[in-house]
Predict the structure.
Amino acid sequence: MNKNIDDILRELVTIEPSFAQYEGEMRTLISELLAKKPDTRLDEQFVTRLRAQLIGRPTPSSFSRYFSYLPYAVAALAVLIALPYGAQFVRSGSGSPVFAMNQQIQSLGSDAYGTLAPQQSEQGGLGGNGVAHGAFSAASAQNETTAAPAPTMATAPAAGSAVPAADTAAATPAVAKVATSYATTNSARIAFPPGPMTVYNYVYKGDPLDLSATGDVYSRVTGQNSSAQVASQLKKFNFGLINLSAFSDTSVRTFELAENKPYGYLIDASFVDGTISINADYTQWPSLNGKNSDVQPLSMSAMLKDDELIGIAKQFLNAYGVNLSNYADPVVQQYSEGVASDSGTQMAPDQITVVYPLKISGIQVYEDGASPYGLQVGISIRDKKVMSVYGLTSQTYTSSSYKLETDSDKILSVLKKGGPNSWIPPEDSDVQTKNVDIEIGTPTKVLMHTYNYTNGASQELFVPALMFPVTSTPSDGGHYPKSILVPLIPELLNQAQTGPIPYNALR
Amino acid sequence: MQVLPNRMSCVLYDVVEHLNMDERSAIEAAIRGDTARFAELYDAYVRSIYNFIYYKTHHKETAEDLTSETFFKALKNIRQFDTDRSFRSWLYTVAHNCVRDHYRAARPASDIDDVWNLPSEDNMVRDTETKLALKEVQKHMGKLSPIQRDVLVLRLWQELSHKEIAEIIGKSEANSKMIYSRAIAQLKASVPAGVFAVLVVALLQHV
């Protein structure tokens, strides 16, 4: 304490030299003031409690608090795990997370993401994301595998499915095979099966639409997790092949952890995208590694019930501490039964996906094909284990207010055709059509997952939309959507396809 | 393998050296709405803010309430924080305002900034032990201006630099030093030497 008093006195004399002549009194005074410093009796339980109230989590242990000052601390620990010597230093995964689990939304000004009009890709895609989400390709693929009773051309996405790009591409040649001799549109040559094409009219039977003039568009914040610090630590290790420390301005963008045990997983994290995905390490899974020659196709009797699938998913996510507070109740994604080539018997799929639909600000998110968007948990039917997890993303968003479509007639006219991405032949087309009505009920307000392309880069967006439930369908054995999604952003709504069939989308 | 612990310790040591740089990163993330990163700021400052408030209230429960209020306000308003400023100073300013509002709400007719303004017989609740310990000091501290008290507390009890104090009180560093020296001079002039003689004897027993 004397040293402290000496320092204080020295400073005071520097400020006010006349104090020097009263050194004794000054020393006494300073001593008194220091001695009277109250014991504030800080209660560490209060610190923990307040932290939990503020952040929603308990105070980390003293060890992890040591790390919690670092923005990339957990990442550093993860890298240390990956390195052979690191495990002894790791006690838990507590501390501040690298990826925000608790949903955070920062409000921006209006129209912050620019114009949201979809832009035609070079492939002539219908959606804004360069993938033909349109009903034609989706329905074609679905119809091809399910042998629909009559040649149809649904003008809406297949039931509950958002068709991945690969599926769309796979369906295209099948459609194109018959492209030589049937009816064509005015300007683009495309084939249709013989007979009239069934065109579905989605007839609205619900209550008057409840429309707002503006609504929030959300964008997930990415790119904030790149880790220069982790890279700087990695570079300290002697990798032998090269001197990593010679590289400058480096950061870690991704890393992969592997579980070296039977039924182990590969865990891939992207700091850039703020995502973590999990996949079965096929070398550790007997049913996947090709060493087991007895692996037979699964019969339908092996199929698990929905509650069993959801139970497996739930148990896995709980075991690995996945925070589900931003997701709605899980649903089992629709699947198609296969047919064994040799016996002609029906086969169960090897993997079924359970989807935990994402909620942003409490509003559920859907793909533009009306299937739920969110955390996808793939379950191996053969092993009754989770074999993949996708869509585990950091939950930091920005939001921006946009004008929404308020003209009910315009919305219902797009609905009538099955959504903005659906196509029906123009009236002056020489395509023969047969109209079938499908009844639609009162919609709910949801968000639609989409992408906005600006300056050559894509931005993931979630825009206000209406989800219209299908309330009655024809009993002809065809596949029909359970619901139709109509975006409320005028530019996206107005992309509704008209005119010649968008042939380019099918390439 | 034997060198491993040292090697890893070096790694960890280097990681910790990024603390200052990381505060800025945490602030920017918190401004973007990442409350998880706000936790890092909370962990860094909750103790000093609580102490600062306690020094101005002398009551544990009140200090806890006002500390809570300070951090909730900080979290709510962090987007208004000017990243060119010191975050610590901003947080102290929020805490200072919370304390002042607390006393002004309790004593609307008085212009009270903190517990030092209160007469010792005031019935506003205080921790007994602290009240007794500060009985002699209180009447002298009460004669200082609120800003003089703040500077004294921040410099002597919280050991902040004058640069940091200057940011908190909204004055220049030179002004902070001047306020500090004048407060000391004022105390020296007002406190009877006999009081200190007794205190010094007691103090020396603890040094």
